[in-house]
Amino acid sequence: MSSENPLSHVDEAGSVRMVDVGAKPLSRRRAVAVASVRMLPETARRLRELPKGDALATAQVAGIMAAKRASELIPLCHPLPLAVAGVELEVGAAEVRITATAETTAQTGVEMEALVAASVAALTVYDMAKAIDKGMVVEGVRLVEKTKEPLG
Is residue 20 situated within a structural domain? Predict the structure, then answer.
């Protein structure tokens, strides 16, 4: 493996491994990820008109639950005690924009938790609206913020 571009979850022999974070100090960590579901304007209008407790609330809860289970879905992801897992959804003219936030005090970051939350929330919107819009596209899943603050 080239030392110029090492993969954190692959050892020198090319075998997969969980990264050893045992010697790292605890720090306050935060990550924000986004995703969107592109859809027909009519689909977005119908989502906006749903009452509270609707498909968007379902997607919000699904994303939060997914953040808490990221280590069960991503094989080499460390299980983390989340202090915050939040998902916000905003319906635009022809899309639903999703922002997911995860925070913890731990020895490793919470990027995967935020990314999983955004992804699952987007997939839940897709699932809830697929009967009326066969052309929806989940896109733009990406990390937009990552912070680490030392404790004390």
Answer: no
